[in-house]
Structure formats: C-alpha cells, structure tokens
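Structure request: Fe/B12 periplasmic-binding domain-containing protein, Subtercola boreus.
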Amino acid sequence: MRPRLLRTSAVVAATAAALLAFTGCASGATGEPASSAASGTLGTVDTMFGTVEVPQPATAGDLKVVALGWSDAEMALALGVKPVGVYAWQGFTEDTKGVGPWASSLFGDVTPTQLGGGETLNYEQIASLDPDVILNVRSDNDEETYKRLSEIAPTVYAPTGTGAFATDWATQLTSISDALGLADQGASLVSSTKADIAAAAAANPGFAGKTAVSAAKFGEAYGAYLPGDGRFDILADLGFVSAPAVTALGAGAFYAAVSVENVAALDADVMVALPIGFTAAETSADPLLASLPVVQDGRAIVLDPTSELATAYSAASVLSIPVVLDQLVPLLAAAAAK
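Returned structure:
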C-alpha cells in the first residue's frame, strides 16, 4: 500500500500549494482584492472551438466553476478549486458530492449543486449558478452544446483533434489548470503522476510489450476501449501494447464496438473487463468471453462494477489513478505472469 500513501501525500501537498498560490495571486495580504487582480484574465487555454479567456474574479473566493465533463470536477479539486456545480458521471451521488469517494473529501464543507448524470444538460440550472467558467473538457465535443454553454460563461473544451470522450488525463488536467491560472500546479501534478505510473511500470518489467485489452460487456454487445481513453491508456503507460485486432477496429474515438462474430479480437496476453449492467460473475460466465484463451488461462481480470477499483479505473483522473495503481497493478502482475 505504500505507493498509494506516497502518491496521496503528493496530491494533498500539491493541492494545498495550488490553493495557496491561487489565493495569493487573487487577493491582497489583508484578504481584500488585490488591485491588479480585480480585472484582467485569470487564465487562457486553446480549445477545439478557439482560444478561451477566463476573466479574473475580484477575489479567489469569488471564482465559480461548473464542471460538466467526465472527471473535470476531480481535476479542478486536485488543483484546490471546488466547483459550485458538478455533473455526476458514473452514478456518483450526493453522498460523495458527485465525484469519486477518493476525491470527495477535497470539497471540505462545500456541497456543489448536482447537475444530473446521464440526461440532457439543464442550461437554466447551469446559468442559475452564475459560473465564471464552465469545464466540459472530456465530453462529446458537440458544437451546439458549446455554443449554448458559451452564452452562459467562458467554456473550456479539449484541444483541437481530440476525439469525443478521448481526452487523456494529462491533457485534461493541463487544459483545466491553464484555464484556472494554475498552469504551474497542473504541470507539477502531471509530472508527479507520470512518475508514479513510471515507477509502477519499472517495478513490473514483465508488462513491457505484452498485449492488453480493456474490454466491456453491455446488453448483448461487446467493446474495447482505445488509446485516448484512460481505461486503455493506463495499461499502455504501464508498458502494455494494444492488441492489433482491437486497434484495427477503430481510431479517433474512445471506444470500438466488437460484434459477436468478432469477439476473438478481445483475446490478448492480458484482459481487463469492465461489465456494464452485469455482475462480475455474469461476465465471467459469458460463453463467448469464456471461450477466449485469455479467460480460460486465468489472464483476464473481471472488475466488480460496484467496486472502488472499477469506478476509479473508469474515472481516469489524477485523483483516481493512485487507486488504480494500488489495486489493479497487483492483479495485472498476477495475470501477466501466467
């Protein structure tokens, strides 16, 4: 468990530093607004819809952030910024303030407004929060949604060329930290997180070059997450490579559909399977998946969809990655050794 303790401490330290830096740059020593901070630009970021400038609030405490994109709220929290509104992905509830349980404590006594989770955006509700900036960095990249949100406040999307829901965690964090005027803190968190992942890879040289698939089962369908999605990217960062048959199925998106006839494409040296609407036991018993050598040989890791690991694996935020390194890496090591 030591790697997680070290990483958690690093996140807390970096978050505290970010919050102090943010407060310092926005307020005077007495707590009154600094004269230079009362106007101007807090941060600037280039997005697929052009350059976005976020105005400097009068004081740091006045900054109102609405986080809509997948894990955008966790990225803001890692920087010491507490969103006033959160779109709750993965079914996260008010009990954890719309984010993963590993991140909710960073809200402190702040309770953000829950903005749904899985439904159409409620623009009136978002506007009622009077945000200074809206984060929709890991999203479906819909231009009409961008236009509607931009009428409410400056809205941050992913950089040009990013596929729908295919913003890697480092780019996501960088875009958000740039927008919030916390570029140095963002860069520090990216660097420390990459170092932790690299350390896990170095401790497991057997991962290097082995093929891996990040698979899903939902309804009567199957699929695989592609490079650009955190559920595959963490495997790649640990040294695994994409199974060629999966790579051939799609590009430019976060996910490739796998037909019943093509389930053999999911065979690899190691599989991480994430059930959607099924239990882990039901997924393991699926006859098509059970026919694959990777499953028969015990090299498949089927996640319990209700577990902390499954949700952390899907969140792919700078705050959830430590959970993945602690809990998934030992399972990968056991599977890769078979």
